[in-house]
Amino acid sequence: MVLSGIKWVDTDTGTIDRNIFYNDEIYQQELEQIFARSWLFLGHESQIPNPGDFIQNTMGEDPVIVTRGKDGKISAFLNSCRHRGNAVTRANLGNTTSFMCAYHGWTYDLEGNLISIPGYKELYHDDMVVGTRADWGLVEVPRIESFYGLIFANWDKSAPTLREYMGEYAWFLETRANPTGHGSEINGGIYKWTMDHNWKFAADNFVGDGYHAGISHKSATLVGHRGTNIGGGNLQQQQTQQNAQFSRQANPDTFRLATKFGHGAGLNLRPVDAPVSSPEGTSKLMEEYQQFRREESAKVLGANQQRVSGFNAMFPNFSINSSADQIHLWHPRGPLATESWVYVLVDAAAPKQVRDELVLGASRHFGPTGMFEQDDSDNWRLSTTGAKSVIGRRHPLHYAMGLKYNDWMEAKEDLPLRRMGSLGDTNQLNFYRHWQEMMWGKSWEEMQAAGFNPV
Ligand code: FES
Ligand SMILES: [Fe+2]
Fold first, then answer.
1. How many CB atoms lie within 10 A of CB 21?
2. pLDDT digit string (tens) for 141-171?
3. Rounded to whole angstroms, how far apart are CA atoms 203 and 314?
4. Mean pLDDT for each 10-residue chunk of the chain (455 residues)?
5. Pick the CATH number of 40-144 from 2.40.50.140, 1.20.1340.10, 2.102.10.10, 1.10.3720.10
6. pTM of the predicted model, to two decimals?
7. Ligand lying closest to the C-alpha of residue 118
8. Which of 103, 108, 117, 123 to mutate to test the pocket of ligand 1 (most atoms within 8 A of CB)?
9. 83 CB under 6 A from ligand 1?
10. Which end is more exposed in the chain, N or C (fewer Cβ atoms within 10 Å of the end residue's Cβ)?
11. Where are the domains of the chain?
12. What's the CATH code, domain 170-445?
């Protein structure tokens, strides 16, 4: 049964029902209606450069293998044998010519075809009985597309193309995925850990919540923590001087962007004359790289686009934190648990030493060793506890900051339609409204035809 028509998210009043953060029935419906129908990040092409390379990821809770075939083509398959359902590989990554299931030995090639069955002649009498071998290959994810090397996939054949789905979010993501025109790469491994919070609190924070930074991260910034900050702003100053952050909201160079399918960002444009500044404790080479990045970005990106940085998220569970170029993925693991994955994305043109410094700086920022990550995730844990509370769940949450305030700025030059100021709850409401439409089972066709009326 699909729970439909229930108004969990009220964009008129700016309130959200806390049931959506703890209820298991709603969670199961999210796996069906959100994660089995949305574009989800699977990895980066640089993780599987050679034929036979593969990585694992999950789409919702479904395990998938992403392979590079003999012809170089990238595909994704459910990591579940068609015989008794066992995983066909237990490795997180590797290089292979085939996947042999370790239960009874059914074997699949890199294109997912079932190529070998032990005892096929003697036991099966050369007969599948039900269909042919071609019918019993690995279940393939039907839609897979890349954006400057970032691989996304979707189980839903009727979904729009990845670019259509991204909309104006692509304008931002390009600045991280292709900052100097040389593409990008994943540097090093992936941090993975599990926290006791609903996945949406993390996405909610990244899609629109700049409001928390001055309070949540104050202790980290007061002790002098300052990570790499390619954006060029003074993060420490922004986060220790809260009132300064609030008063800067009336500046058209600070804005928030919300897109049709629930993505959003709170962004700043670096002043045109801002000097290149290298984070404290980094090398001369880093300073030279920052200069190089500034100059090259100006050649390949739009005049405003090359100056942009800030927080953001792509619906449902992807973000790239532009202060550290870290990709965050929030994998749902039940209504009360999230498995976070963090990757560091680096400009493919960055020298090795710069990459190492960027990774080190990023790891101090986010990931399990990151001071900001610890601040954030513990808040989400307690927000989840609050939603689980019998009394707490009777009371909705307040998401009305800036809701009735008319602060729209029309698209101009290479800037999309946006609202003045990076702080406000409208991005989150836009995210949750799309979440609700997906949950109600609206078709992609319906949602596309409806046009975009941002919150
Ligand atoms: S479960 Fe894979 S071969 Fe039997
Ligand atoms: Fe934060």
1. 28
2. 999 999 999 999 999 999 999 999 999 999 9
3. 8
4. 85 97 98 98 98 98 98 98 98 98 98 98 98 98 98 98 98 96 94 97 97 90 64 48 75 95 96 83 89 96 96 97 87 98 95 91 88 94 97 96 93 95 96 98 96 91
5. 2.102.10.10
6. 0.95
7. 1
8. 103
9. yes
10. N
11. 40-144, 170-445
12. 3.90.380.10
CB-CB contact of 242 with 215 (8 Å):
yes
In angstroms, what CA-CA distances link 139 with 79, 80, 170, 265, 347? 8, 8, 29, 35, 34
- CA dihedral of 175, 177, 181, 182, whole degrees rounded to 10: 150
Asked if residue 394 has its Cβ within 6 Å of ligand 1, the reply is: no
Residue 316: cis peptide before it, omega within 30 degrees of 0: yes
* 416, 11 contact by CB (below 8 A): no
Interval between CA 333 and ligand 1 midpoint (Å): 25
Q: Is the CB of 82 within 6 Å of ligand 1?
A: no
Nearest CA to ligand 1 atom 3: 104
- Ligand 1 atom 1, closest CA: 84
Ligand 1 pocket mutation, candidates 101, 123, 124, 128, criterion most atoms within 8 A of CB: 101
pLDDT score of 233: 44
